[in-house]
Design brief:
327 residues; alpha/beta; Enolase-like, domain 1; TIM Barrel; 2 domains; eight-stranded parallel beta sheet; three-stranded antiparallel beta sheet; 10 helices; 14 strands
């Protein structure tokens, strides 16, 4: 067996500007890992995330450090001890899943026991802005059944109200990206309940989770920045109602499957989410999300240019990946 691993930095323009409470971006910076063996090639994509101390350079270096082990036969289980959770391991892990599918002529869906993976409904994300601008975004997407709304500022109740009035028939997920505080969370939660919000992601900074155990949850609260691996879950019981699983946090599909199964066992609702990346990054997550309570895999819909071939989106429905893309 002769394996060759390669790493490539790629950039894909975002359609406009994508803004959350921590800043704005106009392009998706991704790293693609390719592993070739016996004439077959597997690919995986990751998105380095500054919030977790990752840069393009640091993630690339982490993959390079694993090169020798991977080229000499390390498998996905080996990666769990060879590399820490995070974007670098995600790219390598997903490339190995793709490679296995091609060398064995067995689709990843089949390996996961999914006999007929289905198209699933994804949220569509609205950037953070002033209430009027967010209402305009919501109005333009009011036909979508599920919207995810970025908030996390001093005027969030006005933002929430503006969006719900502009898209009255859409279910709404709020994502505060750690932007609320112990002084405004109760008021914001009450307003969210009044406006029939379906879910709120990570309202408080990771590390301030204990506050959530002392206040009512009139709307289900979902951990995002506070959960990376299955080992985190026991500490979140009684604080959160749901967990957001992202491959770039968990460090690949292998670890994400373990996280999902453990979350279900502990009674959490499951959301499968994403960073802003291409269809290659979303493809394994679509299979992970087949039984999720909430799905947020709209990354390619936010781009001005995606990979070709990419995932097939029909409105807010995203179909399982074609083999030409991944898996």
């Amino acid at each position: 067996m002769v394996r060759v691993l390669s790493v490539e930095d790629e950039r894909f323009p975002i359609a406009g500007t994508f803004t959350i409470s921590r800043g704005s971006k106009t392009e998706a910076e991704v790293i693609t890992c390719t592993i070739t063996e016996s004439g077959f090639t597997g690919r995986g994509e990751c998105v380095p995330y500054k919030r977790y101390g990752e840069t393009m350079a640091s993630v690339r270096e982490a993959i390079e450090q694993a090169r020798h082990a991977v080229e000499y036969g390390a498998n996905r289980t080996d990666l769990l001890s060879l590399m820490p959770a995070g974007a670098a391991r995600n790219a390598v892990d997903c490339a190995l899943w793709d490679l296995e599918a091609r060398t064995t002529n067995t689709a990843v869906a089949s390996r996961l026991g999914l006999t007929s993976p289905r198209a699933i409904e994804t949220a569509y994300t609205l950037s953070l802005g002033e209430p009027e601008a967010m209402a305009a975004q919501a109005r333009a997407n009011a036909m979508r059944p599920l919207l995810k709304v970025k908030i996390g500022g001093d005027n969030d109740i006005a933002r929430i109200r503006a969006v719900t009035e502009a898209a009255p028939h859409s279910r709404i997920i709020l994502d505060a990206n750690e932007g609320w505080t112990d002084t405004n969370i109760a008021e914001n939660l009450a307003a969210a309940a009044e406006l029939r919000i379906a879910l709120i992601e990570q309202p408080l900074p990771a590390g301030a989770d204990q506050i959530l155990g002392r206040i009512p949850h009139p709307v289900p609260i979902c951990a995002d920045e506070s959960v990376h691996s299955a080992a985190d879950l026991d500490g979140l019981k009684g604080l959160y109602d749901a967990v957001n699983i992202k491959l770039d946090k968990s460090g690949g599909l292998t670890a994400a499957l373990e996280l999902r199964d453990r979350a279900r066992m502990l009674g959490f609702q499951v959301m499968v989410g994403c960073m802003v990346g291409t269809s290659l990054a979303m493809a394994p997550a679509v299979l992970l999300a087949q039984d999720a309570d909430f799905v947020d895999l709209d990354g390619p819909l936010l781009l001005a240019r995606d990979r070709s071939p990419g995932l097939i989106y029909n409105g807010s429905m995203v179909s399982p990946p074609l083999s030409a893309l991944w898996g």
